[in-house]
Amino acid sequence: MFKSFRFLLKLIWKFNKKYIFYAASFQIVTALVPLLSVIMPKYIIDELTGLQRIEYLVAYVSILVLINFAGTALLAFLEGAMFTSKTEVFNNFECMMAEKLITCDFESLEDPEFLDIKEKAHRILYAEGQGFGMVFDHAFNIAGKVFIFAGLIGVLSTLNIWIVLVFVLLVLLNSLVESKVQKKYVSWDMEKAPVERRTAYLLEIIENFEYGKEERIYKLKDFLIHKTRKYLDESGNFYKKQTRVLNKSQYFTAFTSFLRDALSYAYLIFKVLSNSIQIGSFTMYISAVAQFSTAMNDMMSSIVNIRRFGAYYEELEKYVNMPQTMRQGHQSVDTDKSAYTIQFEHVSFRYPGASTYALKNVNITISPSEKLSIVGENGAGKTTFVKLLLRLYDPTEGRILLNGTDIREFDYDEYQNLMAAVFQDFRLFSFTLKENVCFDRDCDDEKVIDCLKRSGFGNKLEQLPKGIYTNVYKNFEEDGFEPSGGEGQKIALARALFKNTPVVILDEPTAALDPRAEYEMYQNFNDMSKDKTTIFISHRLSSSKFCDKIAVFVGGEIVEYGSHDELYQANKLYRELFDMQARFYQ
């Protein structure tokens, strides 16, 4: 039951030990102040109805008022200290969760099961809107209530021990009912998570600027609203069931509270009328009963909540401990070498959950500094080939070698440091132009500018008042600029040039460029890829003429391989595709 508490305790101890001290102190003070508020009024009332000694009344009232004042002030300080300490822990936990998402196997990001686990894991982070560390707070709340019970039981046992036992029995009945209710509540919450993830996706694309054109041109309002309403209604049905079962729990709690209050008032009034206790004692016992019941209910509620979020913790544990199969290699890459030979040996690959192979028995050797063009129609396996080379996925069968060593043996990050890629669906960030190229404020400005000029972005750069410190997009800065598709592709290319790796992969590098920009890029191609192994994926077969070798993919297999002249003379598929495109330019 307390797995989640132990997890959070270790986490908080790692990130901010002071939070534990503040939380413990807060609970001790929270326990002591109510106890004194129960006991002191008895002496004041007894004095008022008895000898009425002023000096005693002043002393009693002073103690009560000063303790309440000091306690309130101290609780305010501790609460503020807890909040700031918890914020620090929360921020570190957020970063830990983000790091897990960034470093998880790429294929996990496309796995619905993983995404559902992630969604459920975040529930313990936010505790259904109750704030981070709610489980930890509940656990400390239980510890704090022990101090209250010790004092209250001492007070109530002087009246009648059977009263205490009856109260404990009623609270245990409450907790039993509440536990069953919360178990059902969590079960429905788990079922609800995938529905809410779909709803969040729909709301995101409605708000996302990138989808705005399609939504308007194709009149998607009714279509998207219908889908959104469908999932919102499904979530609503879960909420209705949860509300109904929670109401039953609350009805039972109201009934046991009625029994407790009726019993305690009847018994205490009888004791006063029979002159067994005075009015001051009556007040103290009534307050003690109320405090005891409140504290017991509060403690049982904390236990139930910890148990309830224990189910979420299991999902968090799955998420945090999700195996990272890509990061099992530990061999260092020999970065002193400038020449790397890449070999695909009988490589086949099938995407998770797919019944057919995206690549089948691919065999190819890419020599150092070679320029390889990969051509083929859509779905031929070109992009999958690149994803395997980049180790976004591992082969289902066969292996990929770097200088004779299986790339799975290498340290994952070291291996990827050899690669730079410009994807067809590249992404720019709402950072400065410089940060979009080098992602580091300390990098050399001149090198960033040089890479932007080499990628063909020089003319546009001269028009930007802040130069490389201009923000891309206007999310955060009004004077940011919105790059066109071609401009964005040039920035992405500059990013690859800046990384300056021995292997460069260009996925449709001229797709968004106008003819002049495409011509200029090809003119500068040899300079940009000098001494680098470069892999081109392009539908424009004119780029193949700049390459040493061409691999033609069909249905996940390499059906032709050679230079442009060799494949053109072979008069097969490559020549057919090349002549088909050339016809449009004649």
Number of strands: 10
Kindly, what is the distance between the CA atoms of the first and last residues, rounded to a whole number of angstroms?
75 Å
Which consecutive residue ranges, at least 5 long each, have pLDDT under 50? none
Task: State the helix count.
Answer: 19
Largest sheet: 6 strands, mixed
Radius of gyration from the CA trace?
A: 35 Å
Q: Would you mind describing this structure in some detail?
A:
- The strands form two sheets. Strands 6-7-8-3-9-10 form a six-stranded mixed sheet, sandwiched between helices.
- α5 packs antiparallel against α9 (279-320), α6 runs antiparallel to α8 (221-273) and α8 runs antiparallel to α9 (279-320).
- It has 586 residues and is an alpha/beta fold.
- The protein is elongated and about 120 Å long.
- It contains 19 helices and ten strands.
Characteristic terms for this protein:
single chain, 19 helices, elongated, six-stranded mixed sheet, 586 residues, four-stranded antiparallel sheet
Set down the secondary structure blueprint:
Blueprint: H1 3-15, H2 18-48, H3 54-103, H4 112-126, H5 134-157, H6 161-207, H7 212-217, H8 221-273, H9 279-320, E1 342-349, E2 359-366, E3 371-375, H10 382-389, E4 397-402, E5 405-406, H11 412-416, E6 419-422, H12 433-438, H13 445-454, H14 458-463, H15 485-499, E7 503-507, H16 515-523, H17 525-528, E8 533-537, E9 549-554, E10 557-562, H18 564-570, H19 573-582
Parallel strand pairs: 3-8, 3-9, 6-7, 7-8
Antiparallel strand pairs: 1-2, 1-4, 4-5, 9-10
Helix pairs in contact: 2-3, 2-5, 2-9, 4-9, 5-9, 6-8, 6-9, 8-9, 13-15
